Fold this protein.
Amino acid sequence: MTEDRSPAAAENPEGTAAGDQADEQPVKGRKNGLYGEVSDELATSMKSGWADTELRGLAPVDQAPYAAERRARLSAAFPGERLVIPAGNLRTRANDTEYSFRAASEYVHLTGDQTEDAVLVAEPVDGGHEFSLYLLPRSNRENGEFWLDGNGELWVGRRHSLTEAEQLLGLPCRDVRKAADELRDAPAAPTRIVRKYDAGLEAALAEVLDEEKDEELKTFLSGLRLVKDDWEITQLRAACDATVNGFTDVVRELGQAVATSERWIEGTFWRRARVEGNDIGYGSICAAGPHATTLHWVRNDGDVRPGELLLLDAGVETHTLYTADVTRTLPINGRFNALQRKIYEAVYDAQEAGISAVKPGGRFRDFHDASQRVLAERLLAWGLLDASVHDVEKVLELGLQRRWTLHGTGHMLGLDVHDCAQARREDYVDALLEPGMCLTVEPGLYFQQDDLTVPEEYRGIGVRIEDDILVTADGNENLSAALPRQADEVEAWMARLTG
């Protein structure tokens, strides 16, 4: 990283956008920067001699009409109320470096935009709402912001002008540096904000906000994503296709992973995510050997040993921020041993039962119940449950299978890996499935290394199989079906890739 970057944003009050102070006073340099004061001659030179780079005649982004329809549904749900949906701010990683920015899903869903510090505002009017998007304009070349400010365009790259953004997003755009003042000065109206994304805006509006009402807004926006439209389904297909490529990359490079560690697997999949998408959709779980019994093993610092299993749970996030969520459990040497295959096939059968239960009009929890029943039956047949319990109904009633199945069998999928998590229970886990819903089916069996209730040969084996399932008008579609699932198919696929 270049040493002399001087982020003025670090000196701004919390919640204000970069460049606020630059309009009123000189941008300060880094305390220990190599350059001192800027000469008048240099400042004058930097103001001129630049070509006009304004982009004209831009076509709207593909999701613009879909976002407009979502905003209409939001407006209808909250008549007469002002609604504030922030994108979020950059978060400091250390000193003057930040984590990569990922816009809030609620904001992205309603705008199609991914800009940090931005805010969508729905202003109540007769008959609905007028929506405005607050964004940071192009850097000001008159006051030096574009080359002296750490968030100026010569440091972090060009951003769209407000006029360009209006063409792309189909929304009137305003200067985000004025957002807090304009919202404070707006005519009195009930106001709600999506919390936890912009502390500065929350502070500015604190006197008119109500936490319970804000939670209602978040709940509604989460539920708004339950049924995916046609454009969203194309994004989920693309995410799954890229994820299949990432798994293929990993199998091809298992030899390097054996020579190094789980980190090689993590890096291999991440490379594919960055090439074909925006990023990984969540922390990749690259769990080799006994690490596969830890549900969210993201340290990925263990050995990869032939003869053991690799549980890889990973998903590519598209450039539009929709993610896949897929898991395969792979024999590191390319062949399952007898016990590994027995456990794997039990999980496969459980997943098959679960996928078969995904259909319009079925209960959301049906696929979970179907998968758990299969696993409970196998655990009984293997003699792993208490000898006094012989009835699968009793096992399920008491939840005894959960010692080894541990987690729920799936969740909604979309902009978030656990999408719609804040939706009402009656709209989600207690609801009926509808065409356009997309969910995961991911049963597993996990035998901990220190579990003295199972034979020693079981200990340290973890298996999960996960696919992304779209509810269709007449059943379902497995969006990640291009990845083999049956044990024989997995072995043959690995042999083709590594042979």
Summary: The longest helix spans residues 230-252. Residues 230-498 form a domain with the Creatine Amidinohydrolase fold (CATH 3.90.230.10). The chain has 17 helices and 17 strands.
